[in-house]
Amino acid sequence: MNKPACRVRVAPLSSAASMIRAWVMGLGLILVLGCRREGALRIAVIGDFGGDTPAEAQVAALVAGFQPDLVATVGDNNYPDGSAETIDRNIGKYYAKFIAPYRGAFGPGGASNRFFPALGNHDWKTAGAQPHLDYFELPGNERYYDLERGSVHLFFVDSDPHEPDGVTRDSRQALWLRDALARSTAPHKWVCFHHPPFSSGPHGSTAELQWPFRAWGATAVFTGHDHDYERLDVGGMPYVVVGTGGMHLYPFRDPVAGSAVRIQKHGALRIDVTRAGAEAEFVSTEDASRDRFALPASSELPAPAPLVPAGSSWKLLDGLEPRAGWFAVGFDASLWPAAATPFRIVDRGAAAGAPPRTTYYRIEFQVTRPESVAALELGLPRDHPGVAYLNGREVARIERSPLREEKWLVPRGPRADGTAEPILVHRLLDPGLLVAGANALAFELHRVPAEGGDPSFDSELVAYPRTVP
């Protein structure tokens, strides 16, 4: 479809103040100014929108004003239960002209499909997410798929725990994404799904979705679930939460590491891709709130370097109190046994009332130029309480959260397939803690043997080099 090179504002003859009031009341058509170069690609990103609300109507008008070449969603397209009875009213009523084939009641639909949704937890509330799969015709298996448009390669992932092919980083779905990213030669490789790996909203960060996206080749991650807008910098790569498509908004909690911008307004993300690069801007329907930023190409994102790779050999001491300074550089651990990770301690069958037990782990590694590291990411097991130390300083704690385990359908401890690999939760660390030469990473993990679970241990420390200017 040929788009005009420049969009023109269409508005009733009224004052600017009246038009702003019309935005808030959902009475006027929202269009955004901006000239487009010939051959450019424009993408609108929305999430948590499908509730047939006045706010959804305003966001849909905003998106129409963008004149996008395609609309990408980050899930929760059909509230409250993902049912067949509500899907056309929640989606087609506002976005039919982007959908093809369209068989709903709100017009003829589009000449070609320009609407590409990711599944969310509300879309899965009806068994098998069947209304969603019946309503759209999408690539691949329709739950997770990819598409290319010019210099952009989009990857849509199903992050809901009901996904038959799994949601952890070793799942069949994740292996599909890893391989597809590796094959892609596009400068911009963006991953879209629902549950945010990192978020300052009330749902918070999702450890199960903290896949090594950048190491696999992604250049940005877009999610929803928390009903807010947040842009995070994780090792120089943007992670963006766009859960502002029309449902009630959520308040923020304390900012997580890497949080750069937080906006609690309804709106959508507009992305423009030209030969010069890609730029994104969040636009609010409620006021002048904006967030504009560049989306780096793959050539601008050096591959992360593992300082301590998963599967390394660690020194460990189980059930005995170590000498002082056990977590510092240069500590003599020559008498500690060594074990390659993932390492499993078998507690199953321990006597009732057995006292709590602590296992101590440490490893030393070399860093040549710490000043070249822009960010550090530490992965540590989520399943048991513990404390992490880097060069003698505490850098992270893990607290056990049974309530979270009940809500998330991924088992604690060793994987269901019998492997010893634990699920890791990730923390961003200050790279200034690194020193030239020898460095030490250490953990103390606490457990109650009578509870069983055969706790597994693994860890990784990843350095993100400074991005290419």
Main sheet overview? 7 strands, mixed
Low-confidence stretches: 1-36, 408-417
- Estimate the helix proportion, in percent: 10-25%
CATH architecture title of the largest domain: 4-Layer Sandwich
The top-level CATH class of the largest domain is Alpha Beta
Tell me the name of the CATH homologous superfamily of the largest domain: Metallo-dependent phosphatases
- Strand order, sheet with most strands: 6-7-8-9-11-10-12
Distance N terminus to C terminus? 35 Å
Structural class: alpha+beta
> How many beta-strand segments?
27
Average residue-wise pLDDT: 87
Tell me the Rg in angstroms: 24 Å
How much of the polypeptide forms β-strand, as a percent range?
Answer: 25-35%
Say what the CATH topology of the largest domain is. Purple Acid Phosphatase, chain A, domain 2
Number of domains in the coordinates? 2
Number of helices: 7
Described by the principal axes of the CA atoms, the overall outline is elongated
Keywords, please?
469 residues, Jelly Rolls, Purple Acid Phosphatase, chain A, domain 2, 7 helices, six-stranded mixed β-sheet, disordered N terminus, alpha+beta, single chain, elongated
Please tell me about this protein's structure.
- It is a single chain.
- This protein is α+β, with helices and mostly antiparallel strands and 469 residues long.
- 13% of the residues lie in helices and 31% in strands.
- It has helices spanning 16-25, 54-66, 87-95, 130-135, 172-183, 213-216, 402-407; strands spanning 6-7, 34-35, 41-46, 70-73, 115-116, 145-149, 152-156, 188-192, 220-223, 229-234, 237-242, 259-263, 267-274, 277-284, 290-295, 305-308, 313-318, 338-340, 343-344, 357-367, 373-381, 386-390, 393-398, 424-429, 437-447, 456-457, 460-465.
- The strands form 6 sheets. It has a 7-stranded mixed sheet, with helices on one face.
